Amino acid sequence: MSATWLPSLITADPEAGFDLAIKLSRVAVKKTQPDDETRARLRAGYAEDFDALISISHVVATNFQTVAAANDYWRTTPAGS
Amino acid sequence: MSATWLPSLITADPEAGFDLAIKLSRVAVKKTQPDDETRARLRAGYAEDFDALISISHVVATNFQTVAAANDYWRTTPAGS
Amino acid sequence: MSATWLPSLITADPEAGFDLAIKLSRVAVKKTQPDDETRARLRAGYAEDFDALISISHVVATNFQTVAAANDYWRTTPAGS
Amino acid sequence: MSATWLPSLITADPEAGFDLAIKLSRVAVKKTQPDDETRARLRAGYAEDFDALISISHVVATNFQTVAAANDYWRTTPAGS
Amino acid sequence: MSATWLPSLITADPEAGFDLAIKLSRVAVKKTQPDDETRARLRAGYAEDFDALISISHVVATNFQTVAAANDYWRTTPAGS
Amino acid sequence: MSATWLPSLITADPEAGFDLAIKLSRVAVKKTQPDDETRARLRAGYAEDFDALISISHVVATNFQTVAAANDYWRTTPAGS
Questions:
Q1: What number of helices (H) and strands (E) belong to chain F?
Q2: Which of B56, E81, A17 is nearest to F67 (CA)?
Q3: Cα(A26)–Cα(E9) distance, rounded to whole angstroms?
């Protein structure tokens, strides 16, 4: 059985959680457009387009909400402390 | 009674949950535009359009939030651990 | 008293919940543009527009979050099981 | 003291909650563009624009999430029942 | 120490909470574009642009979700009552 | 081991939480477009573009939801009191 690309939403710390949110955002694109060359070609466009970069940040923010909730926000206090 | 396309939001693991989020995103389009040929024709457009690919990733991220919450984030710790 | 179009957010199963999310998305448009003819005319446009179809899927995903939470995700396990 | 336009998020039923979500969406526009004439003039544009109508539905869906959560989804069962 | 512009998310009532959501939305713009003159010049544009007004309402709706949750929706019943 | 840019989501107060939400929004852009010069060049564009400024505010609002939840909304009194 091929290894899963998403074994868990649990990460060691918030930074690793943010990286996972970026990965989730990119995999959704890859699952829609599997061709690596096409995605590489499109990158030249969005990497220089502020609307696209802002939209990407919004997708990452949405996925980061999910990963952070999964990790109980890597708490170290404030949960009703 | 025809089988339901969405028997449950519970999945075995996060990867299956992500695939379900993609399915939810696509079914909403199919329920709006039921014609397979039209959707296939439109695919040639959005699959090469970075704005569309980013927006699709945002829809998947929103549906993944729902599926992840349904599955208690496939926890294996951090829920206030 | 005229019957309500939205008696409850509780549905029998996830598929009925997804249909309710689609209904919520469409009623919001109808409440903004009550004219059936105008909405039918506009349909010819958005049904062939991938950006619009993706955006519609995003609205359905947002409403499905609400309906799923209302129904405790039609659980059958994982709530911290 | 002038009466508040938003005394509470609690509504009698889901339909009243959906109407409140529409009101919240419209008040945010009014607070940004207070001139009634301008808003009336703009209405002629967005009421015939499917992208705008879809975006409006998305705002209503977001506000409906808030109102529904405030009202515990007008439950009548499924909260972990 | 200069006073904070955001001492708390707690407000007296929902209307004050909505105003705070509008303030949060505007401060994010101000933190990105600190020049008052530029923002005033841009206002002439977005105040007459229905797409922009709808998008602003969406940002306010997102911030209102946060403020409402912080204030336990200013409850007066329904939390599982 | 290089220091993490995101040691925790816990902040002293709401204002620091809002600043963290802005940082999260910007880092997502930086991780997509690492070149400082390109990002500086693009800034001249989005800082004068009201659609972009509104979209940025929406990303910050989404990240602020996450940070606020992590900090239990900096509640000075218990939720539901």
A1: 3, 0
A2: A17
A3: 33
Angle at B50 between CA B49 and CA B52, to 5 degrees: 70
**Interface size between A and F, measured as CB pairs under 8 A:** 104
CA dist F74 and F76 (Å) reads: 6
Long-range (24+ apart) CB contacts under 8 A made by F3-7 are F4/A13, F4/A14, F4/A15, F5/A15, F6/A13, F6/A14, F6/A15, F6/A18, F7/A13, F7/A14, F7/A15
Mean pLDDT of A43-71: 98
* CB B71 within 8 Å of CB B78: no
Q: How far does the CA of residue F48 sit from the closest CA of chain A (Å)?
A: 12
Average the pLDDT over E52-80 and give the result: 92
Q: What angle do CA B44, B45, B47 make, to 5 degrees?
A: 70
Helix/strand/coil percent split, chain D, to 5: 65, 0, 35
Q: How many residues does chain F have?
A: 81
pLDDT in tens, A1-11: 468 999 999 99
**ipTM exceeding 0.90?**
yes
Interface check for B36 against chain C (CB to CB < 8 A): the answer is no
More confidently predicted of A77 and C13: C13
Q: Kindly state whether E54 is in contact with chain D, defined as any CB-CB distance less than 8 angstroms.
A: yes
Two tokens, residue A74: 């890597």
Q: Which of B50, B69, B79 sits opposite A42 (nearest CB)?
A: B50
Q: Which of A48, A53, A65 sits opposite F65 (nearest CB)?
A: A65
- Is B52 within 8 Å of A47 (Cβ atoms)? no
- AA identity, residue A62: T
User: pLDDT at position B79, please?
Assistant: 61
Q: Return the pLDDT at F80.
A: 60
Contact C56 D54 (CB under 8 A): yes
Note the pLDDT of residue C79: 61
For residue F4, give both structure tokens.
């993490």
pLDDT recorded at residue B47: 97
Q: Grade residue D68 by pLDDT with cuts at 50, 70 and 90.
A: very high
Query: Given an 8 Å threshold on Cβ–Cβ distance, is D57 in contact with C6?
Result: no
Q: How far is CA D40 from CA D44, D46, D47, E56, E61, in A?
A: 7, 10, 11, 18, 22
Q: Measured between alpha carbons, how far is residue F16 from residues A57, E5, E61, F61, F71 in Å?
A: 20, 11, 22, 14, 11
**A65–F contact, CB cutoff 8 A:** yes
Are the C-beta atoms of E66 and F62 separated by less than 8 Å?
Answer: no
Q: Are E39 and E32 in contact (CB under 8 A)?
A: no
Q: What is the pLDDT of residue B27?
A: 98
- Enumerate neighbours of A (3 or more CB pairs within 8 A): B, F
